[in-house]
Design brief:
0% strand; 219 residues; mainly alpha
């Protein structure tokens, strides 16, 4: 087997273990005030600006805390890859930078869920409208994580090995897939609760339903 194939497999092993390293997440404070209400953009990149606005009736202190925290998390994207794309350099970057970022992002999603007051096994905090917003934001966090992981570059050693490079990209996509699956589950909850809430969360139900279809196509 060629050395390049061994290289791809070795780097995949690093990626597979990336979620095992720990890095604490902090809770920044960001004010969320927007008007007039927007319906959101289900085709936009998974960033905070893509979300529908939250009606005043849903902007409780708990909701404000959750939105503020989620917005700050989304601003902390995957750290910039090194200019040196050789295997040894990327190995060190994945080991010491990417892996802690993945773990910090996982912790941040859980912290955002706590800020919204959403128990892991419960449908909604306070009302179905609030629950729809909370699950929609949490879904976007998961989708954003998957997109960020897709930015992991291939080692320069694979530039002349297109077949092996394609295998490597598939392996990277494998690492992002669980986050897309988690996004699907959360978008579905957002959609279902939004439908139950009626006009109070109709924009969120529509947004999450269309977003669900978009992510499902990417799996």
């Amino acid at each position: 087997m060629r050395d390049e194939r061994s290289l791809a497999v070795a780097l995949f092993g690093l990626l597979a273990c990336a979620g095992l390293l720990a890095c604490a997440a902090t809770e920044p404070q960001v004010a969320v005030t927007r008007a007039p209400l927007r319906r959101g953009d289900p085709e936009a990149a998974p960033e905070f600006a893509a979300l529908p606005d939250v009606a005043a009736a849903q902007q409780t202190q708990r909701m404000q805390r959750g939105l503020s925290f989620a917005r700050a998390v989304l601003q902390r994207g995957l750290p910039t890859p090194p200019d040196d794309r050789r295997y040894a350099t990327l190995q060190a970057w994945i080991d010491h930078t990417v892996a802690p970022w993945i773990e910090a992002r996982r912790e941040s999603v859980e912290e955002a869920r706590f800020q919204f007051g959403v128990p892991a096994d419960a449908a909604a905090p306070g009302s179905t409208a609030e629950g729809s917003v909370a699950w929609g934001v949490l879904a976007l966090l998961e989708e954003n994580t998957a997109r960020e992981l897709s930015r992991i570059p291939s080692p320069v050693e694979l530039e002349r090995e297109p077949d092996i490079a394609e295998i490597f990209r598939e392996l990277v996509a494998t690492q992002a897939r669980p986050f897309r699956s988690a996004a699907l589950t959360k978008y579905r909850k957002c959609y279902e609760l939004g439908k139950q809430a009626g006009s109070e969360a109709s924009d969120w139900a529509e947004f999450c339903g269309l977003r669900y279809e978009r992510v499902h196509r990417e799996l």
